[in-house]
Design brief:
By secondary structure, the protein is an alpha+beta fold. It is built from 3 helices and 9 strands; from the N terminus they run αααβββββββββ. The strands form 2 sheets. A 6-stranded antiparallel β-barrel has the order 2-3-4-5-8-9. β8 and β9 form a beta hairpin. It is globular.
Length: about 190
């Protein structure tokens, strides 16, 4: 469908006729143009992310998540890892209620975590460190370096927890996270 025409081109005398022919057709504000985007200031064009989020917030009952915006003072690798953790998904343990049960599959073992709050989580699943449920402090997840996403369990990341005997334990990368029926009454 052609969206360029003579009658709707701008009437600015400074724009030569041959160039004005290729100026975009004007539509009414809020009207969707044939290319599929929302109109901006009466001119057709693809909508920006901010416009899409504003439009979505105005008409949707589901909140639009606040996505991470790369920080100019962080290195490219750090920004890339943070964005990757949002794409691959995960869960903040502080957003879960006491007694919630997570099954965390890493490349080498399958752990069961019972959320109980800071310093009160239970973990089991490793044949040496926690064959039976052990009370630990789950610190969060790392990308294999020193940067920690606090109280977060994320796919593609390494779970880090503080064991009462073996101190800091870092798992192999997390492959999958599943939720199980919560325990009644918490921990």
């Amino acid at each position: 469908m052609r969206t360029w025409d003579q009658e709707n081109r701008p009437k600015d005398p400074r724009i030569p006729a041959r160039i004005a022919l290729y100026m975009p057709k004007r539509y009414h504000r809020g009207e969707v143009y044939p290319g599929g985007g929302l109109l901006v200031n009466g001119m057709e064009g693809p909508e920006t992310n901010d416009q899409r989020m504003t439009r979505t917030n105005a008409h949707a009952s589901v909140p639009v998540p606040k996505l991470y915006v790369p920080h100019p003072n962080f290195g490219d690798e750090v920004n890339r890892n943070i964005v990757r953790s949002e794409i691959e998904g995960g869960v903040y343990l502080d957003d879960l209620s006491d007694g919630e049960v997570l099954e965390v599959q890493t490349q080498n073992h399958e752990y069961t975590i019972v959320v109980g709050g800071p310093n009160k989580d239970l973990i089991s699943g490793h044949p040496l460190y926690c064959p039976d449920p052990v009370s630990v402090r789950i610190e969060g997840s790392t990308w294999g370096g020193t940067m920690l996403k606090v109280r977060f369990v994320g796919r593609g990341m390494h779970l880090e927890f503080r064991h009462p005997t073996y101190h800091t334990i870092v798992t192999s990368p997390i492959v999958d996270i599943r939720s199980r029926d919560p325990l009644m009454g918490g921990i």
